[in-house]
Amino acid sequence: MSKVKDNLTIIIVCAALSCLALGFGFAWLYQRPNDKAQVQVAYVALGPLLVNTQDYAFSASLSVQTSAKDAKWASQHKNALIAVLQQALVNTNPKSLRDPSGLQLLQQSLKKAGNASLGKNGLKEVFLTDFVFQSN
């Protein structure tokens, strides 16, 4: 009976050590810094941008989506982005905004204008977070 008790103790100790070893192994794999998922996109808030013309007025707050590696570039060129996007808003046809897809077309034109003027394809998307249009 003591031999059976000794064998059972050995089995329990081996099972406990195996569980501990597996637990430490999984914890080590989980904590490795090189394999953690990195953020793929970044956002830079711009605005509010104000545009006043003789016929209409815009007020727009924008958020520009870039890749994570271009986030620093976008932050450093924030003033240039604002100027380019504001000029693109001035050049916008106000009648096109009344169309159901008008805001999507505006977002696409802002993205194209920003990328073309700055000579970089750093802008992935331009989102209108706040938009007010007023006809005079």
The percent of residues in helical segments reads 40-55%
- Give the name of the CATH architecture of the largest domain: 2-Layer Sandwich
Q: In the residues, how many domains can be counted?
A: 2
- Class by alpha and beta content: alpha+beta
- Rg over alpha carbons: 29 Å
Oligomer state equals single chain
Termini, distance in Å? 99 Å
Strand ordering within the main sheet: 1-2-3
> What composes the largest sheet?
3 strands, antiparallel
* CATH homologous superfamily annotation of the largest domain: Band 7 domain
Overall 3D geometry? rod-shaped
Order of helices and strands: HEEHHHE
Low-confidence segments = none
The CATH topology of the largest domain corresponds to Tetrahydropterin Synthase, Chain A
The CATH C-level name of the largest domain is: Alpha Beta
In what range is the share of β-strand residues?
Answer: 25-35%
Number of helices: 4
Mean pLDDT: 84
Please provide a written account of the structure.
The protein has about 140 residues and is α+β, with helices and mostly antiparallel strands. It folds into two domains: about 1-35; about 40-135, Band 7 domain (Tetrahydropterin Synthase, Chain A, 2-Layer Sandwich). It is built from four helices and three strands. The protein has helices spanning about 1-30, 70-75, 80-90, 100-120; strands at about 40-50, 55-65, 125-135. Helix 3 (about 80-90) crosses helix 4. The longest helix is centred in the N-terminal third of the chain and has 30 residues, at about 1-30. It is rod-shaped and about 100 Å long. The model has no long low-confidence stretch (mean pLDDT about 85).
